[in-house]
Amino acid sequence: MSQTLNNASARPAGGAGGACPACGSLESRKLFTATDRLYRTTSKTFAIVECRRCRLLRLHPWPEPAELRRYYPDNYWYVPEMEPAGQWVERYRRTVLRDHTRFVGRALRECGENGPILDVGCGGGLFLRLMAEQGLPVFGLDFCLQAASVATTANGVPAVCGSLGRAPFAPGGFAVVTMFHVLEHLYDPAAYLESAHALLKSNGRLVVQVPNAQSWQFVLLGENWSGLDVPRHLVTFRPRELIVLLDQCGFEVLRTKYFSLRDNPAGMATSLAPWLDPMARRIRDVQESPRMRFFKDLCYCALAAACLPLALLEAACHAGSTIMVEARKKT
Fold first, then answer.
1. What's the rounded Cα separation, in Å, for the pair 285 and 121?
2. In what helix (H) or strand (E) does residue 204 lie, and over which residues does it extend?
């Protein structure tokens, strides 16, 4: 699952002109400025603004597509596990992905539909591999050719490269469509949701996960919250705004979840110490000895473990740093 730039099409004019992409209002207030703390692809600063009418948070100004692509470093989509600890890393990833597989598995059981799962922004395909190991038919879609290739060759799941609006799938062909950390990267999230609506069977399920701007982590950390991921996240949702968007695209929400073992504790650790984030260090090709790499990885894991109690508490109060939603087509 990659946080994928699935927005090859032209961006809406409203974003370019400073209008809110959700309600069109020109009135907004600046909360703060921030830059790329994680991958350091640019020193340029961007504003995080809040619409005065609907309160949607967005990056301002929105980068043009050609500029935005420069903020996605090489191997952003997938970092092959080429080191001796690779097997341990995969075991860890399998463990922390259980929140996702259980959530989607329940959605599939309750929808009563037979048919495959489509994961949009599938990245290297480990989530789909875990679902396929349960005997479920799966397909992946990613805007990055390398990611789609790795999903097929390394994890054995069929995946194609492209955007959802132009994906080579028949309408009404999927029981479940998943989008984990995709919508916040898009110029036009509604277009992807409408495409998903068309691809779902009559009682199919849509599962979406995004950072939650109503979380305690955002309140405490502000511009340092990793959920903003400046400048790659173009919009940041609160639960109400996500639910309204889903409603406008023909969905009704059935279930929400505010905790992810993969994302919430680690996200807080990355907010506090982005220079320790293992994935970011590897993507940035930070030069360090094996002993130093192990030490930094150990420090990061200890920090994430220390963040777990707060992540659990905020999630119990419906203020977790991510929100996962199950929705179905409105009747």
1. 24
2. strand 200-211
Q: Decide if 8 is inside a domain.
A: no
Instruction: Judge whether 4 lies within some domain.
Output: no
The domain of 312 spans: 13-329
Report pLDDT digits (tens) over 131-182: 999 999 999 999 888 889 989 998 899 999 999 988 889 999 999 999 999 9
CA distance 182 to 242: 13
Examine residue 5 and state whether it is found in any structural domain, yes or no: no
pTM of whole model > 0.85?
A: yes
Q: pLDDT tens for residues 100-123?
A: 999 999 999 999 887 799 999 998
Residue 2 inside a domain? The answer is: no
Number of domains in the chain: 1
Outline where the chain has alpha helix (H).
Answer: 13-16, 65-69, 86-96, 98-111, 126-132, 145-153, 189-199, 216-221, 239-248, 264-272, 278-283, 290-316
